[in-house]
Amino acid sequence: MRILLTGASGFVGQNLLKYLSNLDIYSMDRNDLGHIRIDLFTDSNMVIHLAGKAHDLKSVSDSQSYYDINFDITKQLYDQFLISQASKFIFISSVKAVADCVTGILDEDITPDPKTHYGKSKLMAEDYIRKQKLPIGKSYYILRPCMIHGPGNKGNLNLLYKFVQKGIPYPLASFDNKRSYLSIDNFCFTIKELIMNDSIPSGTYNLADDDALSTNEVVSILSSKLNSKSRLWFIPIKLVRLLAKLGDLINLPLNTERLNKLTESYIVSNQKLKSALDTSFPVTAREGMGKTALSFRSIDEI
Fold first, then answer.
1. What's the CA gap between 48 and 58, in Å, rounded?
2. What are the Cα distances from residue 45, in Å, to 32, 71, 138, 193, 204?
3. Strands (E), the chain
4. Could you tell me if 27 and 17 are in contact, meaning their C-beta atoms sit under 8 angstroms apart?
């Protein structure tokens, strides 16, 4: 079995390469995908398409680049897959392809309404894959992961870890929010199941750990791995919102938009995927978060 993997140099790709180290993998970076040729698929049984342009939180990226990378390259790659001998195509999309904010629980039946160029470009790629006639013997899997974390992750969890490490109390503990996360272990496990199991039907699947965690729980887990007591400040919500409105007026670090992002809930259902896999994930949400915290700590101790 030979697998064509794109986006191998990123955080997720590096972890996936280690997880699938016993398999024959031909890896490509995003920069290698400018001219996709059918010979890239020679002897490849399947494609795992991780490469893409990530969401730019600072909003400095050229909007067209999202469509050039997340849609056009995916389209080219999928077109070649359809005429190749490969049998499976796994596309890593995102929950942001359907919703930037979630009321209740996000499942696959929601009507997509992405607000960013990142989300819109991912949705365009999804729609293209779904609309093409699938030859007999081929399968596609569109995976929509929520925030993935693990060794090598440099996202918001790392920043929160630094916050906890310095002993700074978390000041938004009064907000009772819950978010879904995805351990890199559970991500890699899912990919391997899709590789090995030929009975899983083609389709679009959300990908998240079984349980959502509150930010207070995350702070507690990070603190425990630092062998310290979690420090939470339960400042009255009305006072925090008042300070955020003041920040809107005089450009403080905390404003209404930032407060909403920090305290909103974003819960993702993984029931469709779990039913298709018919198995359990290797780690719980809390175990996965603990492993990530330990990876942060080990880096600091080097």
1. 28
2. 20, 23, 10, 15, 20
3. 2-6, 24-28, 46-49, 88-92, 105-106, 139-145, 147-149, 181-183, 203-207, 267-268
4. yes
pLDDT of res. 32: 67
- Does one domain contain both 174 and 45? no
pTM listed for this prediction: 0.92
Comparing C-alpha atoms, which of 270, 302, 277 is closest to residue 95?
270
Mean pLDDT by 10 residues, the chain (302 residues): 90 95 86 65 87 68 87 93 94 97 95 95 98 96 96 82 89 94 97 96 98 95 90 95 93 85 93 97 97 82 52
Q: Please check whether residues 98 and 175 belong to one and the same domain.
A: no
Buried b (16+ CB within 10 A) or exposed e, 104-143: eebeeeeeeebebbbbbbbbbbbebbeeeeeeeebbbbbb
Looking at the chain, how many residues does it have? 302
DSSP 58-122: T--S-HHHHIIIIIIIHHHHHHHHHHSS--EEEEE--GGGT-SS-SSEE-TTSPP---SHHHHHH
**Does residue 259 lie within any of the structural domains?**
yes
Domain hosting 104: range is 2-145
Alpha carbon distance 295, 302 (integer Å):
11
